[in-house]
């Protein structure tokens, strides 16, 4: 069974991120500032979930 794909807009504490990674295929935004609208739309186009801390 494949894991659902999730886009994470900010780094979160390791404990939470470890849980996300355990159950999901996580794409994590690597920058301090949040993604621009166009980037966010592009990144969530083909994901199953979004963890947003905007």
Lateral strand order in the biggest sheet: 2-1-3
The backbone outline, from C-alpha atoms, is flat
What Rg do the Cα atoms give? 11 Å
Beta-strand share of residues: 15-25%
Low-confidence stretches: none
Mean pLDDT: 95
Distinct helical segment count: 2
| Cα-to-Cα separation, first versus last residue | 31 Å
Please tell me the total number of domains: 1
What is the number of E strands? 3
Helical residue percent? 25-40%
Name the helix and strand elements from N-terminus to C-terminus, one letter apiece: EHEHE
- What summary fits the major beta sheet? 3 strands, parallel
| Computed structural class | alpha/beta
What does this structure look like?
It is flat, with a radius of gyration of 11 Å. The chain is built from two helices and three strands. A three-stranded parallel sheet has the order 2-1-3, covered by helices on one side. It has one domain. By secondary structure, the protein is of the alpha/beta class. The mean pLDDT is 95. Helix 1 links the parallel strand 1 and strand 2 (25-28). Helix content is 33%, strand content 20%. The protein has helices spanning 14-23, 37-44; strands at residues 5-8, 25-28, 49-51.
Summarize the structure.
The protein is 33% helix and 20% strand. With 54 residues, the chain is an alpha/beta fold.
How are the SSEs ordered, and which strands pair?
Layout lengths: L4 E4 L5 H10 L1 E4 L8 H8 L4 E3 L3
Keywords:
54 residues; alpha/beta; 3 strands; 33% helix
């Amino acid at each position: 069974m494949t894991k659902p794909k999730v886009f994470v807009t900010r780094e979160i504490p390791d404990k939470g991120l470890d849980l996300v990674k355990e159950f999901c295929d996580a794409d994590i935004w690597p920058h301090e500032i949040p993604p621009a609208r166009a980037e966010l739309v592009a990144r969530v186009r083909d994901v199953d979930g979004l963890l947003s801390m905007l």
